[in-house]
Here is the input.
Amino acid sequence: MERVTLLPPTVLSDGWIDPKFLPQGKDKYYIRNRQVKEPTGGWRHLHSEEIERLVKNNNTASSWDTVWVTDEFNPGMIKDNKFYGTVRIGRVSNGALQFHDLRLPVGITNSSIHSCDIGDDCAIHDVHYLSHYIIGAHCMLFNIQEMAATDHAKFGNGVVKDGEPEAVRVRIEIMNETGKRQVVPFDGMIPADAYLWGKYTDDTALQERLLQITQRTTDHHRGYYGEIGERCVIKNSSIIKDVKIGTDCYIKGASKLKNITINSSNSEPSQIGENVILVNGIVGYGCRIFYSCTAVKFILGNNSNFKYGARLINSIMGDNSTISCCEVLNNLIFPGHEQHHNNSFLIASVIMGQSNMAAGATMGSNHNSRANDGELVAGRGFWPGLCSSVKHSSRFAPFTLLAKGDFPAELDITLPFALVNNNVAADRLEIMPAYWWLYNMYALARNTRKYHARDKRITKIQNIEFDTFAPDTMQEVVKARRLLELWTAKAYLKATNTTRTDNSEATLIEMGRKLLRGERKSVESLNIVGEGMENSRREVRILKAYDAYHAYGDMLIHYAVSNIMNNEACKEQWKDIRNFKATNTDTEQQWINLGGQLVMECDIDALRRDIRNGTLDSWEAIHNHYNKLWKRYPTDKLRHALNALCTVLDTDRMDDEQWKLALAHEERIQRYIGEQVFLSRKKDHDNPFRSSTCRNSEEALAIFGKADDNSFVKQMREECAANIKKIEQLKACL
Here is the structure.
């Protein structure tokens, strides 16, 4: 088979769609004519004097009859070009365009144009091959080697066009290297969609319907032109093929952009920089992609950064995320992910947002298995420490912090807000539950505000829960308290060499509850061992179980009362809330992190059913359903919080006495939060090594300041004082 074929010159102007793929009565430009808005006054043929001027300016055309212009056409601005096929040129003024330091005259010079529509007052210079593109007004195209669209262009969407085999469909193999959780991308896909598709792989009817729905997102007919939105600037780039670009996008020095959609707008412009390679993907609004990055089979969420030589393959990254200097393969990453270091590695995982991968972190080593079928699932707030290594398959509760180290076996960490340490000297795994609450309140309190502040999205499709204390984290806290009760009872029986006839789980939990609510010394002396948390025979030691148990209780109280204080509807519903009756079904209801939006499992099941039976028959309808659940979420969240409060207070109904107790606890908790935010920050300032690089205390003060002067410390003290006033107001209503 010849790789290069000699064809007649007519192919340069006539070749486009194979006639067998054209609907009856349609020509090869019928889709192009739908894509282009005809200018005011319409198109016209060139006048003879205009053709003469163009020829004098060293322009050629396969036929001047197929070059169309408007009445505001200046042939003097068109020089040294070759035109093939039907080319339509909008207004050409005797002016110039400027973007930053780049100034170019309006017009077209030294370019080869094949069947394109060019908008008003564009500056197109040194574009060596420009084929089958629709270019918006006021665009600047400078020094581009190849920019073309094929008749079967899909612009990153995982669809097949007429006459194409199923094998050409683009699929993103998320969550697992085997491809068994693959999803089909489309413009507008969000992590919620990917999780719904990739997680419920056993629901074959759902899988089939989602594929059908996705195929319908894009017209299956051939013949769509590439599009460049208005006011785009593209310069010094090599290959741009089958790319759709929104308005106001800036591309400089790109190496290869192929089969992608770049969403961009005047309010959320996207930027792509030097030596970037993007193939088979979707770029969200307001993204910034720079400095030799490579992405293949990918989706980047809105307001995300991708920089400094990072590699992103077979992965979906949620909104408000940053990946740089690292390798990320086969992942589904929820919004708010941070990964900045060249020697960090993330593979075959679901990272559920608000996460941070430290330098040297290696998540997903496969050397403990004979196949590449392992997975890693981490709840919100996952933070592996420096040079930490974790094996497949592992699971982590929300806000797990891994201390530096190589973890030798698979992990299933069921205690949230925990510090996990591999104690090599003692040959055991150590877990300190509620570590964040006990020892780093500054970071914990700042977490919610930090992610709110980073959310610069204007286009918000993915709904996101930023609050640290939310149904997903608090349901794990409720479970963790039961585990601590169970393990404490077992440790007590072992320590006292006690034999009981009734060793049922319920009995042990009741015993552990009494121990943990009794005197501290009766628990501190126990060797409490976690169960099922590491795939090994070595001991899993639970540290500071007594403190963690009470910290978890305070978290649940804080979660419930904060929801009441921050929920405007509660002011009118206070009477009903005061007489709230717990419902066990809500207490036991599992909450799912659906790409950043928290949804009850029963609602997920109903959603899947409605997709299967055709009630929801488009991604737009599915997204609208997400939004309906999001509107209901504050009510669902409040009910969950009140049930959690009943659990921690051991009651099935709230009355005035119970509320007095809860509000008194919350007042104490607010004072604790304000003080601990300051103290956890003050530890840094009190560290003598912190100032060891300074000549004297004055230099240290100038560099590091005082903990009291920290803006966030001040803010939290003010907020805690305001919340205490709200608590006093609630007390007065009892």
